[in-house]
């Protein structure tokens, strides 16, 4: 919708244009026309002058939102003068069609309707008063044709604009989803690395005085884990480039993940069924969810962590439970949010909470949804 002048001013100008057209059409009869213009009324120069003035007014105000109807009304009045003063001419119908096309393209729907009604009223008035039926009818047809073509072009332009806006929105959504995916990957990799590294360092601190050899082993494991996690982080970042071809973790890597937590000192009860082969992206999501669940359990839990990864009725279920420490600190929730997003992308569900002193996290993924 284009901006408009205040409605009172628009109505005043429109009523003035209508009044001028009606007065000019009714009172410029043959006797008065001859008394005012004399022989000039039959000169082709008058037609050319009127067309030049009309075109100049049109071009001078293109792009101004308040003038489409006014300029069109001026064109109707001038072509009526040409019809009454000179008689038949071949340019006016085409010119009216072009001007109505312009009104339909740059004006509002109300302006188009107003311009059409004004021209219809004016040309019909000329037909009945002066008997110029053929010429007035040709002008009416020109206005109708121009308006219809303009409306079709306007609708097409609006459809193209809406399509471009929708494409831009889809692009923004895709970019947002990609940022969220990268954030989840980086969070899961870094969170797992820091958590298990801190577990190793904590174990080394406990054995530093009484058993230096165990402390040294724990520090070496922390260093190896740091190097391994750095490589995994590089693989994740490599996904942003065109040459990122290194394989990412899959379900077959879960036993190694569980063992890394055990070596870091986490007590784990791991039970897993044989799962069907899934797309690489789905296996990565499931791997990351197990990784994040174990990371949270090691940070906030106390005691043995029970993990069950089962398959029943084409439904993959991940169930993680562990005792909650009384002094555990509340996290930011970003890891849980990331797991929830991964589950929803695979048409699954996630639930979590404290039940009888245990932190319980449950994820359900349909096999078909994971494959989709």
From TrEMBL:
Keyword Hydrolase among UniProt keywords: no
CDD domains for the chain: HATPase_UhpB-NarQ-NarX-like
Class of this enzyme: transferase
A GO cellular-component term linked to this record: membrane
Transmembrane segments annotated in the record for this chain: 12-28, 40-59, 66-84, 90-107, 112-130
Enzyme Commission number(s): 2.7.13.3
Alphabetically ordered keywords of this record: ATP-binding, Coiled coil, Kinase, Membrane, Nucleotide-binding, Phosphoprotein, Transferase, Transmembrane, Transmembrane helix, Two-component regulatory system
Annotated coiled-coil segments of the chain: 149-185
Protein name: histidine kinase
Organism of this sequence: Deinococcus cellulosilyticus (strain DSM 18568 / NBRC 106333 / KACC 11606 / 5516J-15)
């Amino acid at each position: 919708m284009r901006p408009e002048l205040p409605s009172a001013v628009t109505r005043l100008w429109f009523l003035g244009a209508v009044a001028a057209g009606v007065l000019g059409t009714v009172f410029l009869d043959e006797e008065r026309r001859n008394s005012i213009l004399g022989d000039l009324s039959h000169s082709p120069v008058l037609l050319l002058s009127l067309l030049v003035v009309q075109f100049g007014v049109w071009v001078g105000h293109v792009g101004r939102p308040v003038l489409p109807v006014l300029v069109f009304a001026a064109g109707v009045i001038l072509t009526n003068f040409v019809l009454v003063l000179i008689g038949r001419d071949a340019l006016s119908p085409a010119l009216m069609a072009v001007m109505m096309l312009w009104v339909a393209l740059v004006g509002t729907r109300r302006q188009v309707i107003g311009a059409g009604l004004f021209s219809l009223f004016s040309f019909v008035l000329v037909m009945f008063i002066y008997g110029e039926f053929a010429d007035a009818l040709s002008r009416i047809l020109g206005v109708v044709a121009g308006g219809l073509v303009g409306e079709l072009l306007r609708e097409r332009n609006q459809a193209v604009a809406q399509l471009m806006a929708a494409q831009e929105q889809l692009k923004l959504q895709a970019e947002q989803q990609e940022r969220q995916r990268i954030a989840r990957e980086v969070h899961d990799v870094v969170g797992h690395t820091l958590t298990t590294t801190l577990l190793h360092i904590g174990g080394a601190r406990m054995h530093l005085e009484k058993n230096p050899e165990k402390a040294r082993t724990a520090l070496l494991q922390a260093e190896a884990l740091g190097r391994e996690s750095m490589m995994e982080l590089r693989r994740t970042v490599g996904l942003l480039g065109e040459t990122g071809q290194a394989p990412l973790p899959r379900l077959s890597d879960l036993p190694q993940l569980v063992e890394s937590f055990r070596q870091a000192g986490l007590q784990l009860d791991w039970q897993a069924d044989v799962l069907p082969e899934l797309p690489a992206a789905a296996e990565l999501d499931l791997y990351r969810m197990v990784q994040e669940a174990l990371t949270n359990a090691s940070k906030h839990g106390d005691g043995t962590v029970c993990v069950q990864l089962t398959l029943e009725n084409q439904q993959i279920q991940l169930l993680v439970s562990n005792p909650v420490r009384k002094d555990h600190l509340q996290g930011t929730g970003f890891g849980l949010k990331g797991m929830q997003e991964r589950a929803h992308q695979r048409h699954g569900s996630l639930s979590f909470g404290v039940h009888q002193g245990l932190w319980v996290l449950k994820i359900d993924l349909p096999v078909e949804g994971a494959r989709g």
